[in-house]
C-alpha cells in the first residue's frame, strides 16, 4: 500500500535526514546546498520506493543518491570551468583547487556531525524564526508543510524563510564546526532557547490542531535529549530537558473536559504523567551532579519539580521555590520572575511579605500595562482584609486585562471587595 | 507514543547460556548509543537466561513455583527497550537497524504501550490516585 510506504519513508527520513545532510556537508562544504541535495534525494525516494520497494539500507541509499547528484553537479561545474579555461587559463587552477573530493565523506555514526548541524541551524547570523525553521527541518526532519502547520503559518512563508536562511548561511560562509570552548556557552544558550521556543510554541498554543501541537512539544523534547547525549558534560541541556518533561507531564491535566484551562492548584494530579516526571527529576539530578553553578533552565526545572513532587497543592515546598526564584532572579533579573517569586512568598510566608516583595514592581514601567500585577496585589490585599484597596486594584487590573472574560471576572471581584469594604 | 521492543532469545543462547561475543556487545553498545543520541530511548536492559529465572504458576487452587530453564518455550525474552517515537513505523525502522547474527534466525517483537487515555472511564479517579501515590512512593524510595 502506498500510504503505508509513505509512512515508512517519513519514519526513515526522520531517522536519517540529519546524518545524510551532515555527511553531505563534507562533500559540498555548504549546509544549505547539502540540505537541497538531501531533499532531492528524498523526492527520488518518494518516487522509487513505493514502486521498487524500500532498499535494505535506506540511509546509505539516500546518501549515495544525494552524493551522485552532487558529483553530477560538480562535473557540470567542471565542464563549465573547462569552457572558461579556454578563455581564461588561470581560472581553471583556482577552480580545481576548490573542488571537493566526492569520496571524502567521513562516516560519522554517532553524532559529532549532527552536533555541528545543531550549531549551524542556530547560528547567530540567522533570525530567530529562521533558526527555529532550520532546526525543525534539518534536525527534526520536518517538511516545510509540517513546520507551517505547526506554526500556523502559510507554507510559502516557511519555504521562503528556509531558503533565505540557507542563502544567509552560504553568504556568511558559516563554518561547519562545534564552537570553541570559549564560545560554547553563548552559542549553546541560543540553541537551548530555540529548542525551548519550539516546545512553548506547542505547549502554550490555544488554537490549531492539538495533535500537531503536541508533536511539536515531543520534537522539542527529543531535540533536548539529543543535546544531552551529544554534550553530556554540559548541565543546562539536562536542565532544559527536565523543564520540558515536567511541564509536559501536565498535558492532560491542564484543560478540563471543555478545553478550558485548569490552574495548577486545581489540576487532578493523578493525571500527571509520572514517567515524564521521573525522567525530569533524573535529568535535574544529572545537571546538579556536574557540580557547576545552576543555570536558568535547571533552576526553572527545579521549581517545576517542587510542584511535581507535591502530592497535593498543600504539600508544595514553597520556601524552596522562593529560594530557587532568588537564584533565578540573580541570574536573569526580570519583573516576571519578581512577580512569580512574590506569589511563592505569599504561599510560604504570608500576604504581608508578598506585598512588600511586589513594591519594586509598582515603579517598574515594564509592568505598567501588565494586568497580573494589580490582580496579584488585589488578591493579597483581600487576604489582609484591606478590601477597599483591593477593589481599586481589581478595577485597574480589569482595565488592563486583554480579554473580555478576564475583565468581567476581575470586575466581579472588584464589586464584591467593594461590598465587603462598605459592609 | 511509547513502544516496548522485546528481544527474543534464541535456542543457542538458551541452551548454552551463551555470553555474547565482544564484537556483539560492541555492536549493541553502538546501537544503544545511536538510540540515545536520536533522543528516543527511555529505558532498556538485557535479561539473564531462563535457567536463572522462575515461573509462578496459578491454577486449580494451587500456586506452584517452577524454576528455569524453560527450554521448551519458543518465545523467551533476552532483553527489552522502551522507546518514545513519533509513529509505530519509526519504531519498526529503528528495530530493523538492530545488530544481529546473520547466521542465526532471531527476532524482535514491538508492542505500543497503553496510555492512560486508552482506559477511558474504567480508569476511575480513585484508581488513578492510587497509581499516583504508588509512583510517588517509588520516587521517594529512589531519592529523586
Structure characterization notes:
- The complex is a heterodimer of chains A (423) and B (144).
- Chain A is an all-alpha fold.
- Chain A has helices at 2-28, 31-52, 58-87, 89-98, 112-121, 128-138, 144-150, 155-171, 184-203, 210-230, 235-248, 274-289, 296-309, 318-331, 335-349, 351-362, 372-383, 387-400, 404-422.
- The longest helix of chain A is centred in the N-terminal third of the chain and has 30 residues, at 58-87.
- Chain A is elongated.
- Chain B has one domain (2-113): Dimeric alpha+beta barrel (Alpha-Beta Plaits, 2-Layer Sandwich), CATH 3.30.70.
- The longest helix of chain B is centred in the C-terminal third of the chain and has 17 residues, at 125-141.
- Chain B contains five helices and six strands; from the N terminus they run E-H-H-E-E-E-E-H-E-H-H.
- Chain B starts with a strand and ends with a helix.
- The relative contact order of chain B is 0.23.
- Chain B is globular and about 50 Å long.
- Chain A binds chain B through residues 4, 7-8, 10-12, 14-15, 109-111, 114, 215, 218-219, 221-226, 229-230, 252, 268-275, 277-279, 281-282, 285, 309, 311, and chain B through 2, 30, 33-34, 36-40, 42, 84, 86-87, 89-90, 92-94, 97, 116-117, 125, 128-129, 131-133, 135-136, 139, 144.
Q: How much of the residues of chain B is beta strand, in percent?
A: 25-35%
> Could you tell me the mean pLDDT of chain B?
83
Structural class of chain B: alpha+beta
CATH topology of chain B: Alpha-Beta Plaits
Count of alpha and pi helical runs of chain A: 19
Biggest beta sheet attributes of chain A: none
Gross morphology of chain B? globular
Amino acid at each position: 500500500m502506498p500510504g503505508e510506504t509513505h509512512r515508512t519513508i517519513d519514519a526513515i527520513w526522520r531517522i536519517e535526514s540529519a546524518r545524510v545532510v551532515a555527511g553531505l556537508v563534507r562533500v559540498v562544504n555548504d549546509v544549505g546546498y547539502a540540505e537541497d541535495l538531501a531533499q532531492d534525494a528524498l523526492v527520488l525516494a518518494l518516487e522509487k520506493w513505493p514502486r521498487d520497494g524500500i532498499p535494505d539500507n535506506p540511509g546509505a541509499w539516500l546518501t549515495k543518491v544525494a552524493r551522485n547528484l552532487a558529483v553530477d553537479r560538480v562535473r557540470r561545474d567542471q565542464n563549465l570551468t573547462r569552457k572558461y579555461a579556454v578563455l581564461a587559463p588561470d581560472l581553471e587552477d583556482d577552480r580545481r583547487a576548490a573542488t571537493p573530493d566526492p569520496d571524502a565523506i567521513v562516516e560519522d555514526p554517532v553524532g559529532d556531525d549532527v552536533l555541528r548541524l545543531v550549531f549551524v541551524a542556530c547560528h547567530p547570523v540567522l533570525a530567530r524564526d529562521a533558526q527555529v525553521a532550520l532546526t525543525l527541518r534539518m534536525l527534526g526532519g520536518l517538511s516545510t508543510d509540517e513546520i507551517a502547520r505547526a506554526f500556523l503559518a502559510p507554507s510559502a512563508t516557511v519555504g521562503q524563510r528556509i531558503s533565505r536562511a540557507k542563502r544567509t548561511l552560504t553568504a556568511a560562509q558559516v563554518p561547519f564546526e562545534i564552537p570553541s570552548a570559549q564560545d560554547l556557552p553563548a552559542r549553546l544558550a541560543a540553541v537551548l532557547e530555540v529548542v525551548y521556543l519550539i516546545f512553548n510554541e506547542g505547549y502554550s498554543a490555544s488554537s490549531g490542531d492539538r495533535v500537531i501541537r503536541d508533536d511539536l512539544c515531543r520534537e522539542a523534547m527529543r531535540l533536548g535529549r539529543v543535546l544531552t547525549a551529544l554534550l553530556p558534560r554540559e548541565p543546562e541541556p539536562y536542565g532544559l530537558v527536565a523543564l520540558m518533561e515536567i511541564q509536559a507531564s501536565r498535558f492532560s491535566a491542564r484543560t478540563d473536559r471543555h478545553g478550558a484551562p485548569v490552574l495548577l492548584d486545581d489540576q487532578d494530579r493523578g493525571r500527571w504523567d509520572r514517567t515524564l516526571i521521573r525522567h525530569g527529576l533524573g535529568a535535574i539530578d544529572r545537571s546538579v551532579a556536574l557540580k557547576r553553578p545552576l543555570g536558568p533552565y535547571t533552576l526553572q526545572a527545579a521549581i517545576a519539580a517542587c510542584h511535581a513532587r507535591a502530592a497535593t497543592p498543600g504539600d508544595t515546598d514553597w520556601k524552596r521555590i522562593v529560594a530557587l526564584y532568588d537564584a533565578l532572579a540573580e541570574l536573569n533579573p526580570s519583573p516576571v520572575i519578581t512577580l512569580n517569586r512574590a506569589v511563592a512568598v505569599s504561599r510560604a510566608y504570608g500576604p504581608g511579605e508578598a506585598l512588600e516583595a511586589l513594591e519594586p514592581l509598582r515603579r517598574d514601567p515594564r509592568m505598567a500595562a501588565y494586568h497580573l500585577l494589580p490582580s496579584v496585589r488585589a488578591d493579597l490585599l483581600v487576604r489582609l482584609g484591606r478590601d477597599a484597596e483591593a477593589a481599586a486594584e481589581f478595577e485597574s487590573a480589569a482595565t488592563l486585562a486583554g480579554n473580555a472574560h478576564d475583565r468581567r471576572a476581575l470586575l466581579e471581584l472588584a464589586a464584591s471587595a467593594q461590598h465587603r469594604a462598605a459592609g | 507514543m511509547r513502544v516496548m521492543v522485546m528481544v527474543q532469545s534464541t535456542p543457542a543462547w538458551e541452551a548454552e547460556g551463551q555470553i555474547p561475543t565482544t564484537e556483539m556487545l560492541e555492536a549493541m553498545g553502538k546501537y544503544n548509543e545511536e538510540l540515545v543520541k536520536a533522543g528516543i530511548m527511555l529505558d532498556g536492559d538485557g535479561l539473564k537466561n531462563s535457567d536463572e529465572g522462575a515461573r509462578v504458576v496459578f491454577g486449580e487452587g494451587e500456586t506452584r513455583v517452577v524454576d528455569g530453564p524453560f527450554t521448551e518455550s519458543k518465545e523467551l525474552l533476552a532483553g527489552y527497550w522502551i522507546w518514545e517515537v513519533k509513529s509505530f513505523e519509526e519504531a519498526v525502522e529503528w528495530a530493523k537497524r538492530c545488530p544481529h547474527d546473520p547466521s542465526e534466525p532471531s527476532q524482535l517483537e514491538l508492542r505500543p504501550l497503553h496510555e492512560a487515555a486508552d482506559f477511558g472511564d474504567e480508569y476511575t479517579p480513585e484508581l488513578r490516585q492510587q497509581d499516583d501515590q504508588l509512583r510517588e512512593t517509588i520516587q521517594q524510595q529512589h531519592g529523586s
